[in-house]
Amino acid sequence: MEEEYWKRFLKTGKIKDYLYYKGMKICTQVMERYTEVRPPEGHASRS
Length: 47
Hints:
mainly alpha
């Protein structure tokens, strides 16, 4: 999906499209980090 936004930026050269690309990249990194530290199913969370 990130590649889609990158291609759009390369085509248009618009800052808006670059920021969408960076936003998707950051979102992906956060989601990957969350899945790495997520406790196994069945464990109680501290809420």
